[in-house]
Amino acid sequence: LSLASRLWDYIAVRKWPRTLQTTPAMTKRVASMDDWLLGGAKKDGTVVTTKSGRTFPTDEHDWRFFSDSVPQTLATVAAQNFRIVFFTNQRALFSGDDQSSIVQVFVSLGSLQYRKPCTGMWEHFEKYENGGISINRQCSFYVGDAAGRICSSLRGKKDHSAADRLFALNIGINFFTPEQYFLKQTHIENYILPSFSPSLSLDAKLCLFEPEYLFCHISSVFRCLFIGYAFSLLGFFP
């Protein structure tokens, strides 16, 4: 298990076994998914969930596949020359190794650029862990349970976040919920995303200040208050 760190952020990378032969065709299309069972730290389910029904597993044996179709679905995807990659946020996890893994697993152990919905884990995978092969994002997809879905008659409780849907959106690949991908659910559940869209703001031609003349006639010292989400690096302005 290799560990790379920047500032207070960490990413743990589980590589493919050396005996597994890969070809360029296997690395151009990526089937990426949320979560993996790591030392009993798995929380809730995209590929696996708990047998007990609890949010957190009671031990390393308290797990089951999200549905009976998961193994065959993953086998089908692998047969179609997709590379299967798991991206998961596990800030509390700092050690552990599973020699039986035959897929790539990227674990965000910190809270900055590697933590979903930030794209650090994907960028690290694409730059350093994919054999230098460019990825066809139009043919790649991400499956995750943090989809921003609201409480409804179909869903007893809302999703804990929208980080997985935003992760796919930030990367520019297709997104599916576990129900859509493994259970072939065709109904699109209602979901809520943050009202602020970085991509729209970057594309828009906006003034530096609103109104534009806000600071034009100020000659004395003034205080500027920056407001943003946690870990948005507001304190790093010069």
UniProtKB/TrEMBL annotation:
Coiled coil: none annotated. Gene3D superfamilies: HAD superfamily/HAD-like (3.40.50.1000). It comes from Gongylonema pulchrum. GO terms for molecular function: ATP-dependent polydeoxyribonucleotide 5'-hydroxyl-kinase activity; double-stranded DNA binding; polynucleotide 3'-phosphatase activity. Transmembrane segments: none annotated. GO terms for biological process: DNA repair. Pfam families: PNK3P. This is FCP1 homology domain-containing protein.
